[in-house]
């Protein structure tokens, strides 16, 4: 087990689609353990492999932050199969620490992928879980929540990040 440093907005691995997982090796299994530990330690309710610099389509979520073991979801090669309704709430991201924005998301999502034993599974989420699923699916596609914002709301976050970067605080 190891905690991995979390990449921040601006690092190339966060801004391109990740590659599919071809085989579930012991290395992938260890990577998933590290992702779960890193998510809980952050603390966060979701983490995608590109966020720790790994160019693979894997995410983990736990909207209970470790309180309810049933809430831990591991998705390998995830696909969004259902997106219903709409919600609009403040959202953040471990790769954009200190920033939040209102991001519209589906109220209900169903995600299909492989679990960590390689078996296909489908998980349905509503509310915060639905939001977390779409947020993490975005990460494996190389999108961050700011990429779903428009105009000034998007520009102001990007401008502030660039400023932090120039001053070496990012
Ligand atoms: Ni995120």
What does the largest sheet look like? 5 strands, antiparallel
* CATH class (first level) name: Alpha Beta
Note the run of SSEs as H and E.
HEEEEEEEHH
Give the strand order, joined by hyphens, for the main sheet.
1-2-3-6-7
Structural class: alpha+beta
Q: What number is the mean pLDDT?
A: 97
Distance between the termini: 26 Å
Hetero groups in this structure are: nickel (II) ion
Proportion of residues in extended strands: 25-35%
Oligomeric state of this protein: single chain
Low-confidence stretches: none
Structural domains: how many:
1
Shape: globular
CATH architecture: Alpha-Beta Complex
Helix content: 25-40%
Helix segment tally: 3
Task: Describe the fold and architecture.
There is one protein chain. With 170 residues, this protein is an alpha+beta fold. It has a single domain (12-166), classed as Peptide deformylase (Peptide Deformylase, Alpha-Beta Complex). Helix content is 26%, strand content 25%. The chain has 3 helices and 7 strands. The chain has helices spanning 26-41, 128-140, 151-166; strands at residues 46-48, 58-61, 73-84, 87-91, 101-105, 108-114, 120-126. Strands 1-2-3-6-7 form a 5-stranded antiparallel β-sheet, with helices on both faces. The chain is globular, with a radius of gyration of 15 Å. The relative contact order is 0.18. The mean pLDDT is 97. Bound molecules: nickel (II) ion (NI). Nickel (II) ion binds at residues 93-95, 135, 139.
């Amino acid at each position: 087990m190891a905690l991995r440093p979390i990449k921040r907005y601006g690092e190339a691995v966060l801004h391109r689609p990740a590659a599919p997982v071809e085989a579930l090796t012991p290395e992938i299994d260890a990577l998933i353990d590290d992702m779960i530990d890193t998510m809980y330690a952050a603390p966060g309710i979701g983490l995608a492999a590109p966020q720790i610099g790994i160019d693979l389509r894997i995410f983990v979520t736990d909207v209970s932050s470790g309180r309810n073991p049933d809430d831990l979801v591991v998705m390998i090669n995830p696909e969004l199969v259902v997106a219903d309704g709409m919600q609009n709430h403040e959202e953040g991201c471990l790769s954009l620490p200190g920033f939040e924005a209102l991001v519209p998301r589906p109220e209900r999502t169903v995600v299909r992928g492989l679990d960590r034993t390689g078996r296909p599974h489908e998980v349905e989420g509503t509310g915060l879980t639905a939001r977390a699923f779409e947020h993490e699916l975005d990460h494996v596609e190389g999108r961050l929540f700011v990429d779903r914002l428009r105009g000034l709301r998007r520009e102001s976050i990007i401008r502030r990040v660039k400023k932090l970067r120039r001053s070496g605080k990012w």
